[in-house]
Amino acid sequence: MNTFVVANPHKCIGCKACEIACAVAHLPVDINAAAARQTTFLPRINLVRAPRVTMPVQCRQCEDAPCANVCPVNAIAQQENRIVVHSELCIGCKACMVACPFGAMDMAIQEEEQSILQVANDRGAERKKVMVAHKCDLCTGRPGGPACVEVCPAEAFVVVNPQKLIRNMKEKRLASAWGMLSGRR
Q1: Structural domains of the chain sorted by starting position, each given as residue range(s) with its CATH number in brackets
Q2: pLDDT, tens digit, for every residue of 113-124?
Q3: pTM (2 decimals)?
């Protein structure tokens, strides 16, 4: 089973702290250097606002991940209880975006440019930037775990790991069994 992060829409206050923390956690440099370089803001979580609810949406690390199943170059794979994108393999076909049932897959512009493709604009022709699949990676390598969970002032996020899920299922089964027994008396 894969570890994943889930948010409770009844607790979410729509502050976007999760998006900011996510983007900052994935910066290639510290926040001051990123501001000086005008680095692009790329959160791997998206806050969805609707009339009656706000809800952060991010990758659910699916067991039989549709995004990985449709990737023609195997750039998306299961690794260490999560689904990862190997951006160096990604060709930017966007099949993963179409396949994701949660809309959690996105495309991110990379620093390098494509070798041949160009884009015509008012300044002439410029090399097209490389785009690759981009999604929640559970803040891999970050000592505090997922940044969104750590910063949420409403405590709307929960990290669900296989051990926690199994323990929760056992507790529910036990409660159900006790409920059935007490109903017979």
Answers
A1: 4-184 (3.30.70.20)
A2: 666 666 777 777
A3: 0.79
